[in-house]
Design a protein that fits this description.
Number of helices: 5
Number of domains: 1
Largest sheet: 6 strands, parallel
Helix content: 25-40%
Shape: globular
CATH topology: Rossmann fold
Distance between the termini: 13 Å
CATH architecture: 3-Layer(aba) Sandwich
Bound molecules: pyrazine-2-carboxylic acid, zinc ion
Length: 191
């Protein structure tokens, strides 16, 4: 068994947050080294498949003129427009067909940073017998943070894969890690 496989057990799920082209270098809302998480997450994906651990992958999936965009007074430039190249998962991300895709950010009236925000995912996770989420992806200080905190609030154990995430802002990344630690999120690293 690989070192990563040994870190996985029954009741775990891998939660890959928003590894989409627009959040990688060259995208509409590029995160420094955002693409560097891809090969690391691919190793976790392979280990999860080997161990029968379910994989969930969230995607930001905005309508044109979304309320979170600058043009509407929101904090972000337009990004992850539904069905655009920018909204696609990074082409090197090796998601198996069995991965469950969680789509968010589709509401017209509000943003959804967390994969738990009105997606119904809690019911799905409980049905799958999930107790612990291993979380990685983009961005550490936005959607990864919101997802990890909501998972804790819902009573799941959470392990952040610390080397498989990157923040939009270095400073906010530090604050995000503190908030996650304070909420009981564990930090693991890829061997
Ligand atoms: C995200 C900014 C705007 C994210 C989504 O996935 O972290 N960041 N929308
Ligand atoms: Zn967004």
């Amino acid at each position: 068994m690989s070192k990563i496989e040994e870190m996985l057990r029954r009741g775990d799920a891998l939660m890959i947050v928003d590894v989409q082209n627009d959040f990688c270098p060259g995208g509409a809302l590029p995160i420094e080294d955002g693409d560097k998480v891809v090969p690391i997450l691919n190793r976790w994906i392979a280990a999860a498949v080997a161990r029968g651990v379910p994989i969930y992958a969230s995607r930001d999936w905005h309508p044109v003129g979304h309320v979170s965009f600058n043009e509407r007074g929101g904090p972000w430039p337009p990004h992850c427009l539904q069905d655009s190249d920018g909204a696609r998962f990074h082409s090197n991300l090796e998601l198996p067909d069995s991965a469950v895709i969680v789509t968010k950010g589709v509401r017209f009236d509000q943003d959804q940073n967390s994969a738990f925000d009105q997606t119904g995912i809690v019911e799905q996770l409980r049905k799958d017998g999930i107790q612990r989420l291993l979380v990685g992806g983009l961005a550490e200080d936005v959607c990864v943070l919101a997802t990890a905190l909501d998972a804790r609030r819902e009573g799941f154990e959470v392990a952040l894969i610390a080397d498989a995430t990157r923040p939009v802002s270095t400073q906010k990344g530090e604050k995000a890690r503190k908030k996650m630690r304070d909420s009981g999120v564990h930090f693991v690293r890829t061997n």
